[in-house]
């Protein structure tokens, strides 16, 4: 017993000895902090703000570290003095905590890593009449507008950045065209008026950029920045199409505007110290608009460095537009929601890429696809269809067509049904193809509902939606023990509603009986359509209301007990005067 006790005492002593060492090591680990300063309270003994900022950072460096650091400038990554005021510096946690108490320091917060979040859009949004024959850019007075795009850079050879017919660069522009690997001065023109790179924050956190694998220049290797820049201000490109689909003229929403590309994103992400420096520089360069399709976590406005910088840009007359992100539909998933930022979300539009498959029963199933490969199935031949899942209510690896889950003997020469989810949609087709399948039916599950995405698949494939949804609900008898409730259904356009059973016979008060509702969608609606059902025994009423939403194309059902409450007119059932 004494030996066991001694063993635990030794372990406890070792733990207590190591714990301070570990915490001390954490306090000495350097990382990037952004320090916001109140420039109005600079002491008079300093000749400029940079000198003051530098002195403030130097004041928290320990004596031991000062002996190792020749120049405190090595700790400062960026100075900000236009839209944001302060510095980005490499500090330990202890130094950052002490710096917060310094004179003129508004706040100190650690680096945030941000992530990256068509030919008919202008007409769809009502920005151009369908019968327009003149160049859209001639109709809008935006030729001298410069849009600063903070993203992954730009691919200057894209025809979206052709400057034919554009006037000289406006005189208010003070920016530069930085050079680097595969990017020279001649890549800038009257459309791409400027290009810069920001990477010091990224390298401080992730190490030097591998210039053999990544362009340490404004050139876009990812494609996201080129896409967003062209969406904002791309020049008209006639005859644009994707594999023959969506043929037309592709252009940005403001094709007469100019682009200034600020590359802030790299393979490992987009760091807030680099983004802040880009915003600061863009405002100083003379941009009129900032377009930022990046997002970090949700935080308070006064702790969000991008929100603070955007406010500063707004004060200087620069319009700031940011993306809402792709994290929905769960609560608290929107980003960049400060009231001085125009937050842009996503939407469906009125264009489809239909594809169909005819079953042996003669029924034709319609879905969407962008497959235009050479390997087509014969219309004169019937192909077996196989589904590798079981009757389980939850998807299985084989039903999802995950890698190495399909038996070649079972799928060779057949069309395989794959449930949507987990793995990328196009990758499922590759799995089917590798296993010897000749085609794929990508079936939505209940989680995806009627939402369809047309993909350029690797083999003949079609994506289909779920058209029916069954729900089980209960009704509680609040009337006399012997009560009979009948159902009245008010259907809405685009869907049918079936209730089973249609009558509920109660034998006790407060007794609960179940029923089943099956919703079957028929067609899309241009506006939300409301409908519902009501159970009544002639005196008491219990109602469920729902709507068919044309945005996410799923069926939403609200379960509410409506007893004597006034309802919106569009949600009332026939003869319901509530």
Derived structural class: alpha/beta
| Biggest β-sheet description | 6 strands, parallel
Going by CATH, the homologous superfamily of the largest domain would be Peptidase S8/S53 domain
Number of separate helices: 12
Q: What is the β-strand count?
A: 30
What's the overall average pLDDT, rounded?
A: 78
Number of domains: 4
Return Rg in Å: 31 Å
Biased composition (Basic and acidic residues): 211-225
Domain Subtilisin-like protease fibronectin type-III: 466-541
Family: Belongs to the peptidase S8 family.
Keywords: Hydrolase, Protease, Serine protease, Signal
Characterization of this structure:
A hairpin with a 4-residue loop joins strand 28 and strand 29. 33% of the residues are buried. The radius of gyration is 31 Å and the shape is globular. It has 4 domains: 85 residues, Peptidase S8 propeptide/proteinase inhibitor I9 (Alpha-Beta Plaits, 2-Layer Sandwich), CATH 3.30.70.80; 231 residues, Rossmann fold (3-Layer(aba) Sandwich), CATH 3.40.50; 111 residues, Glucose Oxidase, domain 1 (3-Layer(bba) Sandwich); 104 residues, Immunoglobulin-like (Sandwich), CATH 2.60.40.2310. Helix content is 20%, strand content 28%. The N terminus and C terminus are likely disordered. Helix 9 packs parallel to helix 10. A 6-stranded parallel β-sheet has the order 7-10-6-13-15-16, sandwiched between helices. A 5-stranded antiparallel β-sheet has the order 26-24-28-29-30, with no helix packed on it. Strands 2-3-1-4 form a 4-stranded antiparallel β-sheet, with helices on both faces. It is built from 12 helices and 30 strands. The protein is α/β, with parallel strands linked by helices and 578 residues long.
């Amino acid at each position: 017993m004494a030996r066991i006790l001694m063993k635990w005492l030794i372990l406890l002593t070792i733990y207590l000895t190591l714990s301070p060492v570990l915490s001390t090591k954490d306090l000495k680990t350097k990382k990037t902090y952004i320090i916001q300063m109140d420039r109005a309270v600079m002491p008079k003994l300093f000749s400029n703000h940079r000198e003051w900022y530098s002195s403030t950072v130097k004041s928290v460096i320990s004596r031991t570290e000062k002996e190792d650091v020749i120049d405190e400038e090595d700790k400062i990554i960026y100075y900000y003095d236009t839209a944001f005021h302060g510095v980005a510096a490499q500090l330990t946690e202890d130094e950052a905590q002490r710096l917060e108490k310094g004179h003129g320091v508004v706040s100190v917060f650690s680096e945030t890593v941000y992530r990256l979040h068509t030919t008919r859009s202008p007409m769809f949004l009502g920005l151009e009449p369908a019968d327009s024959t003149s160049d859209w850019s001639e109709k809008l007075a935006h030729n001298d507008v410069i849009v600063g795009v903070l993203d992954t850079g730009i691919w200057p050879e894209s025809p979206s950045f052709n400057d034919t017919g554009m006037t000289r660069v406006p005189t208010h522009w003070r920016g530069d065209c930085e050079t680097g690997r595969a990017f020279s001065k001649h890549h800038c023109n009257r459309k791409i008026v400027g290009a810069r790179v920001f990477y010091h924050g990224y390298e401080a956190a992730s190490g030097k950029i591998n210039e053999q694998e990544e362009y340490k220049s404004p050139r876009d290797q990812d494609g996201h920045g080129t896409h967003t820049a062209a969406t904002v201000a791309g020049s008209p490109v006639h005859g644009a199409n994707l594999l023959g689909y969506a043929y037309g003229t592709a252009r940005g929403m403001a094709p007469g505007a100019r682009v200034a590309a600020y590359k802030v994103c790299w393979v490992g992400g987009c760091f807030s110290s680099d983004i802040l420096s880009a915003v600061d520089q863009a405002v100083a360069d003379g941009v009129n608009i900032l377009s930022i399709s990046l997002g970090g976590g949700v935080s308070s406005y006064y702790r969000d460095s991008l929100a603070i910088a955007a406010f500063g840009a707004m004060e200087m007359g620069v319009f700031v537009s940011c993306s809402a992100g792709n994290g929905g539909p769960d609560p608290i998933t929107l980003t960049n929601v400060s009231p001085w930022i125009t937050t842009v979300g996503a939407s469906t539009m009125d264009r489809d890429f239909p594809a169909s498959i005819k079953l042996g029963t003669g029924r034709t199933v319609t879905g969407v696809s962008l497959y235009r490969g050479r390997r087509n199935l014969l219309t004169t031949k019937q192909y077996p269809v196989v589904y590798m899942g079981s009757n389980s209510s939850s998807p299985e690896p084989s039903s999802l067509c995950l890698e190495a889950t399909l038996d070649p003997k079972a799928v060779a020469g057949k069309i395989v049904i794959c449930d949507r989810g987990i793995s990328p949609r196009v990758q499922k087709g590759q799995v089917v193809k590798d296993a010897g399948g000749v085609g794929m039916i990508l079936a939505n599950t209940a989680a995806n509902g009627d939402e369809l995405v047309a993909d350029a698949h690797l083999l003949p494939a079609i994506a289909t939606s779920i058209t029916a949804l069954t729900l089980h609900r209960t009704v509680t008898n609040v009337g006399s023990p012997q009560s009979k409730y009948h159902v009245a259904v008010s259907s809405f356009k685009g869907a049918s509603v079936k209730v089973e059973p249609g009558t509920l016979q109660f034998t006790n008060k407060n007794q609960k009986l179940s029923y089943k509702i099956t919703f079957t969608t028929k067609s899309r609606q241009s506006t939300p359509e409301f409908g519902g059902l009501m159970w009544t025994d002639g005196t008491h009423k219990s109602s469920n209301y729902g709507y068919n939403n044309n945005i996410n194309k799923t069926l939403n059902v609200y379960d509410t007990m409506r007893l004597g409450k006034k309802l919106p007119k569009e949600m009332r059932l026939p003869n319901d005067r509530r």
